[in-house]
Amino acid sequence: MIGIDQLIAMRKAGKRPDVVWINFDQSYRHPKDLREWHNLELEYSHSRDLRPFINLDVIICSAHWTEDVGALFERLTSYARTITVLVADFGDDIGWWWDKRFGRTDFGARCFAREIQEAQADAMTAAIRGNKAEYAEAQARELNAIQARGE
Q1: Sequence-separated (6 or more) residues with CB below 8 Å from residue 113
Q2: What is the DSSP string of the chain?
Q3: Residue 32, pLDDT score
Q4: What is the pLDDT of residue 65?
Q5: First-to-last CA distance in the chain?
Q6: Which residues of the chain have pLDDT under 70?
């Protein structure tokens, strides 16, 4: 990966970007300062070590679906927290979203994951406060979101 040294240095410094873009079609642009690292952009080249991507949100961008794009996606599923795949070749169905907890999901169905995450966060907050009614309501919302996905 061209620019991965910046990601490694950032991770060693205890910082992490909000998202890392891996571009197959654009040249690497070095960030001017640490404040730009909330959205780090790298240029694709073969890399054996993907450990710097552990628990990060990654976006893969490419004009064309290639073996390299597919191989990178498959390898990143062992490291990243989420992966968004954007490929212009796919037309209106431009790609998909992958999450280590939910797996691969079409963009149109992604809202279920957010509903589940929000319900889980609300349940945790209610449990900490000791509010049994709010906790039960949040659990019911989580169950409804899970059941709605299965339909």
Answers
A1: 97, 99, 101, 102, 105
A2: -BTHHHHHHHHHTT---SEEEEESSS-----SSGGGGGEEEEE----S--GGGTT-EEEEEESS--HHHHHHHHHHTTT-SEEEEEEGGGTTS-EEEEETTTEEEEGGGTHHHHHHHHHHHHHHHHHHHT-HHHHHHHHHHHHHHHHHHH-
A3: 65
A4: 92
A5: 40
A6: 30-39, 108-111, 149-151
